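Pilot study result, target chain (140 residues):
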Amino acid sequence: MKASFFTGVVFIFLLFLPSLAQPGLTISGELTDSEGELIGENDSVSLDVVVKIYDEDDGTEPGYVESFLTEESQGITVYNGIFTVQIGISDTTGALKTVLSSAENPWLELTIDGDTLSRSPITSSPYVITYNRPHEIAGN
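Predicted structure:
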């Protein structure tokens, strides 16, 4: 049974490996239904997830969009409420690196199975993916 409303706590972690030609960003979180029950508790479920990044918290046009749809065998697995998705690796609308480097205060919005969660600010850590070499971060 799918819940009609999702609440989510989203944690954003940086996946930055200089050896990769194309860096990405990993998003993890916990999903519960309207009664506070974990989604996928004791049995994993695959859900549609659309990730959008906006320039502002109230922006209307996302600079970045990436979809993970079950009908395309790309749905995101949720088990005991926990999900993880890596963005910026596959086909997207807008380049992740470009959007993060140009937005002064980027905001993340997730839509899970048609329900849009509250936007969350993207902290400064993801800005590291705008650099190709660690010595550039240190200003050397």
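One observation from the pilot: Residues 1-22 have pLDDT under 50 and may be disordered. A full batch analysis is planned for the follow-on phase.
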